[in-house]
Amino acid sequence: MKTFLRYLLMLSSLAMLPRQMEAREVIHKGDTVVVPLRGEISPPLFLFLRRAVKVAESAEAGAIVFEMDTYGGRLDTAADITSVMNHATIPTYTFINSNAGSAGALIALATQHIYMSPVSAIGAAAPVLATGEDLPATEREKTISYWSALIRSSATRNGHNPDLGEAFMTKEKEVKIGDRVVHPKGSLLTLTAQEATEKINGKPLLADGIADSVQDLAQKAALKGQLVALDPSGFERLAFWITQLAPLILLLGIICAYLEFKIPGASLPGIIAALCFALFFLGHYLAGLAGWEVVALFVLGVVLVLIEVLFFAHSTIVFGVVGVFLILGSLLWAMIDRYPGETFLPTGGMLAVPLRNLFLAMLAATVVIMILARYLPRTSIYRRFALMTTNPPGPSLAGAPREFATALALAPGMEGAALTTLRPSGKARFANHVVDVVTEGEFIPADTPVTVIQTDGMRVVVKQAG
Known about the structure:
Blueprint: H1 2-8, H2 11-23, E1 32-38, H3 43-58, E2 63-70, H4 75-87, E3 92-101, H5 103-108, E4 113-116, E5 121-123, H6 137-157, H7 162-169, E6 175-177, E7 180-183, E8 190-192, H8 193-196, E9 199-200, E10 203-204, E11 209-210, H9 214-220, E12 227-229, H10 234-244, H11 246-262, H12 268-286, H13 292-311, H14 318-334, H15 348-375, H16 380-386, H17 402-408, E13 415-418, E14 425-430, E15 433-438, E16 449-455, E17 460-464
Parallel strand pairs: 1-2, 1-12, 2-3, 3-4, 3-5, 4-11
Antiparallel strand pairs: 5-8, 6-7, 9-10, 13-14, 13-16, 14-15, 16-17
Helix pairs in contact: 1-12, 2-12, 3-4, 3-10, 6-7, 10-12, 11-12, 11-15, 13-14, 14-15
C-alpha cells in the first residue's frame, strides 16, 4: 500500500510537463489569440481548439482568430468544435487561408466574423461516408435534415445568412436575397473570396473582407493588443487517446488497487494502479477538463481509505465511506467539460458522458473483482505473496500428513482463532494446531474467532465467528 501511495504522488511531477508547456503561452488581457485550424477535422484537433478557447477566455483576451486551411473531416468532431465556438464569450474570427471545405465551412459559420485570403474558397459541405461515397438515401436525408437545422441555428447565432450554410450541404437549397438568386438549386454552394465578400443591399454576402494575412486581418478588424499564437502539441494527441480510453484505464487502475490491498508484499499492482490513475488525471488535465484541485481531492480520498484500513478497521466506516465518495467524485469531476463562467454545478448534458464512463468502469471492475475474490486465493502465486509476511510456524493442511489432518478432523462449523490478519489468507489455530486458512475475500484481524465453512483437502475456508 505504501508503494501505491508513493507512486500516486508522482502525479505532481507528471503534471509539471503541461504546466511548463503552458508557461510559454503568455496571454495578456486584451490580446488577440491566433489558433491554427489546419489539416483534417479530427478529435485531437477538437481537444486543442477547446483548450485554446478556454485559455483565451481565462486570460481575458480581446478576440480569438482561427487560421483555417482544411478540406474537412469528421462531422461529429465538427459538431463538437462548433459547440466550443458557440460557447465562446469573446469575439471570434475565422481567417480562411486557402481552404474551408466541407466540415471547415460549417465550423467557420460558428464564428462571428469571417475573413478570406485573396485566393481561397469556402463551401461544399455535403456529408459523405468515410470512403468518400454518398450516404444511402434514407441516412442522407436524416443527416442533412439534422445538420441543416444545426447549421442554420449556428449561422443565425453568429450573424450569417443561414441559407448559405444549408446550401453548403444540399443541392436542393436555393439562396435568394431580395429579388436576386445568389445560388440556384442543382449544385452544392462553394464561394470564392471575391464572391463571399460581394456586397448585396449594402451587406457582404458572407465574409467581412479579404485579408492577406492574420496581421492584415487584425488591422482591418481593428483588433487590439498583441497577436499571440497558440500551437498544438503532442500532449493534445496523448490527451485524446487517454480520454477515449478512460473507462479501460479506470478499470485497470481499480483492479490493480484491489490487488494491492489483497496481496501484501506484491508491489507491482500498486505501481500499475498509481500509473493508471496518474495517466487518467494527466490526460484529462491536458484535455482541459481537470485541474490540480481534482488530483488533490482524489489523493485525499485515498488517504482517508488508508486511514480506515490501517487504523480503524472493524471499528468505524466513516473515513472509508467519505474517502470512497471523494475518490468517485474526483474521477467524475475530472471528466466534466466546464467552460469559464459556467455554473459550478454541472447540468445533465455535462454529466452524461462522465457518468457513462464511470459506470462502465465500476461495473466491469465489480465483475472482475468478484471473480478474483473467488478464484485468486486458490492460485499458488497469490498464496506465495500473501504469506510472505512473518507468520507463526505451523503445518499447512494441504501439506500436512494424512494422519495429522485426520487427527485434527477439521470440518465445517469447527471454531478457532485467527493468529495473523487474514487478507484473505493467513494462519489460524484449531485445537492447538496451527493451520493455513483462507477467507472468501474479506479481511479478518488477528485474534478474531473464526469458523470453518468449507474444507476440500487443499484449503480450509473460514469466516468470522458470531
